[in-house]
Each structure stands twice: as structure tokens, then as C-alpha cells.
Amino acid sequence: MSTPLLCAKCGAPLAAHAANSVVTCAFCGTTSAPAPRVVERVVDRVVVVAAEGAESTDGVPCPRCAKIFSRVSGGGDEALACAKCGGAFLTPAQVTAMQQTRNEGLARAVRRVSAVFMALEPRQAVLSCPTCQGALRMEEIEGSVHLMHVCKEHGTFFEMDALDTYMELWTEKRAGEVTDEDLESLGVSRKGFFSFLKR
Known about the structure:
The chain is α+β, with helices and mostly antiparallel strands and 199 residues long. Helices cover 21% and strands 15% of the residues. The chain contains 4 helices and 8 strands. The longest helix is centred in the last third of the chain and has 16 residues.
């Protein structure tokens, strides 16, 4: 048996259709509206539209929080960084360059824009590219909890601190690829005292 709907003013029972439509109490004349329904939905993709901080229509919105990106420069390059969530958007060429050479100046410029000091929860929903609005492919940065969101055509969005982690990963990868022969070709000897035994 369902719970009867009662008038909020006098407590008299209301008609059964009061759950779905506005009714007037027959006893005191008070009008009652149905309670709002709670609808739960799982969001599988976040599409950012111009919203917060979008005074200028020419700005590029952050795919995570919609704040207009700030343009930052450092290390002879420039990128887009978000002052609200600490994320950064780099072009495909910049991401490739980061794999080849660590650009600490650019990473420092990205860090300085944000006033956020605590790491934010990684965004698990699919974000949209701020340039083409296409879905960004979510990738974990190897050996870490950080995420990056990739558009092959326009660039990669790094969550807060993810750019530093990405640079560190590629610094370690580059260090692992250097062999003794590579160093010797540059005139640097890494072989120890017993290296003559290997000949």
C-alpha cells in the first residue's frame, strides 16, 4: 500500500494524481506541486561549451573545467594551461618534442598558472578536444596514476602534474636507451677498470 499524499498546510489527504500533477486541497484551498524526481545518469562523455570565464569568444576552453586557457611560455616554447584545474594542452609536435628532450622551462610555466596545490581526482569521463570537439582518447601515463587525454590531430590534454610525470617517464626511457657504445662514440668512456677483459 502506497503512502497517502497529504496537504502541506492542513494535512488533509490529496487526490492520487497529486504525485504527478499540481492539485488544490479540497479542505483549505492550498495548491500543492509534486516533488521533483531524482534521475541518476552515468555520464560517459563530457563536452565543454563556453561557460565559466568565457568573456572573450576567441579563447580556448579547458576540456576538464571549461575555464578559458591561459597561454604560457617557457623553455623557448608556449602552451595552453588552465588556472582552475592545473591542466595543460600541448600540440602533437610539442608532445613529441617532450619525448626527445625535457623542457623544464615549459613545465614550470604550466605549473605557475594554477593556484591549485592539491591534486584533483582524475577525470574518468571521456573529454572533448577543445579544438575539434571530438572525443579525446584517455590514456594512463605508464607507471603512474596520472591521465592524459589525446586527440591525434590537435594535441594532448594533461591533467594536473601529469606533464611532469610524462617528462620524467621519457627522461628515464631515454636514459635506458643509452649504451656504452653510444657514449664512446661521443668520447665518453663508461667502462670500468676491468673493461680490457671483455675484449
